[in-house]
Amino acid sequence: MTGLTVFALTGAALVGLGFYGLLAARHLLRRVVAFNLIGSGLFLFFGAAGARGVGPDPVPQALIITGIVVALSATALAVGLVVVHARAAGHAVLPEEPEEPEEPKDEGAT
Amino acid sequence: MADLATIALTAAGLFFFVAGTVGLIRFPDTFTRLHALTKADNLGLGFIALGIALQAETWAQVARLGLIWALALLAAGAMAQLVARTALEREDAE
Amino acid sequence: MNALVAVLALPLLGALAAVALPPRAGVRAALLATALTVAATIWLLLAVARRGVQGVILGGWEPPLGIGLAADGLGAAFIAMSAAVMGGVALAARQMMAPDVVGARAAFGFWPLMLLLWAALNAVFVSRDLFNLYVGLELLSLAAVALVAIGGKEAALAAAMRYMIFALAGSLLYLAGVVLAYAAHGTLDIGLLAARDAAPSDGLALALMTAGLLAKTAIFPFHVWLPPAHAGAPAPASALLSGLVPKASFLIILRLWFEAMPDRAGFAALMLLAGLGAGAVIWGSLQAMAQARLKMIVAYSTVAQLGYLLLVFPIAGGDGAAQPWAAGAWTGAMFQVLSHALAKAAMFLSAGLYLAAVGSDRLGDLRGLARTMPMTAFAFALAAVTLMGLPPSGGFTAKYLMMTAAFAAGQWYWALVMALGGLLAAAYLYRPMAVLFARESLIAPRPVTRAAQAVPLVLAGASILLGVFSAPPFEFMQIGRPDAAEEGL
Amino acid sequence: MTLWLTFVALGVLASLAGALWRVWRGPREADRMMAAQLVGTGGVGLLVVLAPLQDWAALDVALVLALLAALAAVGFVKARSDDGAGDPEEAPPTPEMMRPRQTRHDPRGRHG
Amino acid sequence: MSLALDLALCALILGVALATVAGSGLFRAIVFFIVYGLLVAVGWVRLGAIDVALAEAAIGAGLTGVLLLAAHGRLRRLGTARDASHGAHLLSALAGAALAAALAWAWFVLPLPERPGPELAAAMPRAGVENPVTAVLLNFRAWDTLLESIVLLAALIGLWMLTRERDWSGRLGLPQHSRAGGVLASFGRVLPPVGLLIGVWLVWAGADRHGGAFQGGTVLAAVGLVAAMAGLVRPPRIGARLWHVALMIGPAVFVLAGLAGAILAGEFLTLPPPIAKPAILTIEIALTASIAATLAFLVLGPPEEGRAP
């Protein structure tokens, strides 16, 4: 067992844990957190895979940095959505079945 | 000689870290814990940084260590005040 | 300089200008960028038709180090599809998304988001790099979610939230597959991946990527987010979301199964994909029949119509790729993509015009509108012809090609699903048509200009013309295809 | 030296684990936040120890951590104020705040 | 001994992640997640990926934490911060376990592939920078990075679309205030100059050592946030032209440089080796400005009135 294996398996476990959280959690903020766990677990796995062989491969590192920034962008939008959704709906969970959007009254009113 | 000093200093640093943690776990309420914590971990980080500075290869590294400690001191001091005030204002046990 | 670069850079620059300039100038810049991108698309089509596949090695760095882009016939056809829909939507949005109609907020956000969506679509259509596709997909998803949320109402926000969760989960599953592919092969380039020896982890990588992309394409049973999201957005946004966005993730599935890892595609997996597609066709159609609002009917119809696309996998994928019928089935599915995009955009824009006219899209409130808005009703009817797969529409060409190939491949059951889907489409589209063409009308509609009504008509007409003149696009889409058809239609 | 520094790193990690117990237990939000601050300082310490072991560039990471550790705490203090944008030092002590509570001891011996 | 360190670190990371997902209480989950980001940053140092560690420390442990804490505060004021019980435990647990097991299996069967090593070695002298990670980000795979900077912008526009109509003309985020001369205000005065230096230095050093536009930009965003939260600077309104230009200047310079490369050197995003270094630095400076502004605005959130009526 090498250090890389430790990190790769940790990454795999984090992905599983995060996926469980994404599916099982009902509070939307928790789902956002779980999404971040999956992402960083995946990156750890990738980082460990890229560190195999002679000398670290810079390509995975660059991809991971891109991935971290993309994940932050998605997190920021998702968190904003959680808050405005909670403000409009009065709760921060999604109903099990998607409801039909209410009629957009007077969308075209001038 | 430098190695011996490093060992002694980092040992001291580790001691303060552990002491801070013990305080965090054992002390009975928020404010005593806060007190123990800020003192201990600032000292802990200080000693460790000092010990590592003796191993440094360039002055830039020493300067960076100093900056790290200064930042940690500043942040810990200010935050202890503010977090304590926040805790004072409300009872928020979940 | 190259037409391919132009169709990527122009919408990006337009979006940036729309952010930086004051509101009025921003809209003008966005419209200018739209016109220029449409022109660049025509330039690209001509270049591909004359000189074959148009490639770019970005920065001059060859893969595996750098990223390669290529517009083959398929990619260029998809780019043309987005240009057609985007052009129409931009014209419609000048009125529908004006500040005095939707408020300063939505009027500011729509244009940069539309252009970013366009740039992301074009980037995905031509990228040959799995990770670059991931970044492109994320840009697409964030812009799409934002376009749903632009509606601002509680239901639209809930729909955007649900969409976001599916999109995020889908991206991560896809990314997991990408990570495994790079870790096993040391390259992300689709062409290089196909040339490398198979690794034991490839099956898992392909499964993860496909699962993630299916969630993003809203394939049954991952479709629950789509109808409320597409129905909850403003009509021009719905047209983009329903007509174009799912096609990007579908195209990646196609590239994975037909180009990157064709030899890892087992028959059972191909059948499973088609089974999901058949489920989507039937379930989406049945749900569409149960809806009371026009936009919801049109949105559920998208679920059904996307299902057809997956039927192509067992007919033309795996070992079937070498068979004579494969090209017909494959091209048929592409006709389905193109004609659905045009027809669906026309339908949502028509629905938007009805909303503008009577303030509602409940079927009961739309009675007799064909008398006061004949052009719009005609556009809706033409689009419906395409979705039902009646001749001479593009939808007919699509289903004809796929059904004959299904019979040739001995997989008659998929042909049955297609026929059933056509009947169900006729059933769920009959209700809105009967209402629109009813003799009496209840509400006096607000006037809608002819110019606004012309846009959906042109789009719907294009979806019919795609069937009338189907030979040139058929041949065009064979350009750069690994197993191109020997003969034309 | 390497062995000793690894031992110190392990010791710091162990003390972090102790702090994590306080994050778990709370009971107040302030307790959790303070414990997280200690973990932050500990993480900085850990990176400082790793610097000679592995790569002196670890100091840059430590520097960024030390800088941004404060951001989370500021965020907490802000989010915890009445309107989400205030400062705990702004409001004069309210009668409710002055009310004695069990087992409370203000280390500074004053309330503001 | 070194393995013991990795094992202990990973055990802590896993424990913290477990506490994040499984523990009750939303606030607890968020604090654990902040700690998690910090430990993962240490993990990246152990893996020898300093650039990633910098990004994770700045983003994972820093900005994401503030974002979540602020959201928690907002939800609490809306009365919606109460944790909801988990649903569909068993199925979700099975799915998660299957995914983890599949990835773990994949680790042991992954072949060691031929990597773009020779190509990389041959290309580095022409890349314009010494740090291979920066070379990949800003030269070899510049298209990824360009799209990524656009993703940030798309997220911000999306976030702004969540503004209530009546708040649209207001300043970004909540109207921040603090006690003049108080601890928070003085802290907000002392920290920014130091942070500014560190941020600029990270961008500068990114070319040849470690760091880069994203790490530096994140630190600068954090500095701006501290100053804003301490009430020292007021966030702008949507529509403040100068700030809109700041948001798009990075991607715009990037696209235009790419087009210039296409015209001068043949392919989109080409940086001719003689001018590669100044070109990369120019792009990085513009990108840093855009990233810093975008990230700071993302964390501040859409304009909101202070107290809900």
What does this structure look like?
The complex is a heteropentamer of chains A (110), B (94), C (489), D (112) and E (309). With 110 residues, chain A is mainly α. Chain A has a domain at 57-93. Chain A has helices at 3-24, 28-50, 58-89. In chain A, 73% of the residues are buried. Chain D has helices at residues 2-25, 29-53, 58-80, 95-98. In chain D, helix 1 (2-25) runs antiparallel to helix 2 and helix 2 (29-53) packs antiparallel against helix 3. The relative contact order of chain D is 0.09. Chain E is mainly α and 309 residues long. Chain E has helices spanning 2-22, 26-46, 50-77, 89-109, 117-123, 132-140, 142-160, 183-206, 213-229, 241-265, 273-300. The N and C termini of chain E lie far apart (60 Å). Chains in contact: A-C, A-E, B-D, B-E, C-E, D-E. At the B-D interface, helix 1, helix 2 and helix 3 of B face helix 1, helix 2 and helix 3 of D.
Quickly count the domains of chain E.
2
From the spread of the alpha carbons, the general shape of chain E counts as: globular
Given as residue ranges, the uncertain stretches of chain E (5+ residues, pLDDT < 50) are: none
How do the helices and strands follow one another from N- to C-terminus of chain C? Answer: HHEEHHHHHHHHHHHHHHHHHHH
Annotation, overall tally of beta strands of chain C: 2
State the distance separating the first and last CA atoms of chain E: 60 Å
At a glance:
The complex is a heteropentamer of chains A (110), B (94), C (489), D (112) and E (309). Chain A has 110 residues and is mainly alpha-helical. Helices cover 70% and strands 0% of the residues of chain A.
Relevant terms:
heteropentamer, A: 110 residues, B: 94 residues, mainly alpha, 3 helices, 85% helix
Ordered list of secondary-structure elements with their pairings:
The complex is a heteropentamer of chains A (110), B (94), C (489), D (112) and E (309).
Chain A: H1 3-24, H2 28-50, H3 58-89
Chain B: H1 2-26, H2 30-53, H3 59-89
Helix pairs in contact in B: 1-2, 2-3
Chain C: H1 3-20, H2 23-51, E1 54-57, E2 68-71, H3 73-96, H4 99-126, H5 130-149, H6 154-185, H7 190-195, H8 202-217, H9 226-232, H10 235-243, H11 245-260, H12 267-290, H13 294-310, H14 312-316, H15 326-358, H16 369-372, H17 374-388, H18 394-408, H19 412-436, H20 450-468, H21 471-476
Antiparallel strand pairs in C: 1-2
Helix pairs in contact in C: 1-2, 1-4, 2-3, 2-4, 3-4, 3-10, 3-15, 3-20, 4-5, 4-11, 5-6, 5-11, 6-8, 6-9, 8-11, 9-10, 9-13, 10-15, 12-13, 12-19, 13-15, 13-19, 15-17, 15-18, 15-20, 17-19, 17-20, 18-19, 18-20
